[in-house]
Amino acid sequence: QVQLVESGGGLVQAGGSLRLSCAASGTSLRINTMGWYRQVPGKQREVVAAITGGGSPNYADSVKGRFTMSRDSAKNTVHLQMNSLKPEDTAIYYCNARLFADDYWGQGTQVTVSS
């Protein structure tokens, strides 16, 4: 069973930056796909960024050029550097890990961007 723990959310003014981190535990296997999703009340959870294998991250159009995802594969850890934050980035951000056919989720961390 994979456990994911996120950290780094908080309140920031528009134009500011935050860095989210996610550490996976409970497996000695290298997790192939890890990603960040976000959700606001009343809307579906949407992908923000994801990395598969040793490839480059893929980003949602809404965050391209502002967010950067990185991973430490040896530690099954990922980060999301969020710059030039906008009020519309306000959401609960979730870390996701896919191991074989199973999806695992963190508890979520709140990001609030004030205008």
Please provide a written account of the structure.
With 115 residues, the protein is mostly beta strands. β7 (67-72) and β8 (77-82) form a beta hairpin. The strands form two sheets. Strands 2, 4, 5, 6, 9, 10 and 11 form a seven-stranded mixed sheet that branches. The protein has a four-stranded antiparallel sheet with strand order 1-3-8-7, with no helix packed on it. 0% of the residues lie in helices and 56% in strands. It has no helices and eleven strands. The radius of gyration is 13 Å and the shape is globular.
Give the overall shape, derived from the CA principal axes.
globular
Structural class category: mainly beta
State the order of secondary-structure elements, H for helix, E for strand: EEEEEEEEEEE
Q: Report the span from N to C terminus.
A: 40 Å
Tell me the helix content.
under 10%
The averaged pLDDT comes out at 94
Secondary structure: number of strands: 11
Radius of gyration: 13 Å
- How much β-strand is present in the residues? over 45%
Can you tell me the residue ranges where pLDDT is under 50 for at least 5 consecutive residues?
A: none
Tally of alpha and pi helices: 0
Subunit organisation of the chains: single chain
Task: Specify the biggest β-sheet.
Answer: 7 strands, mixed
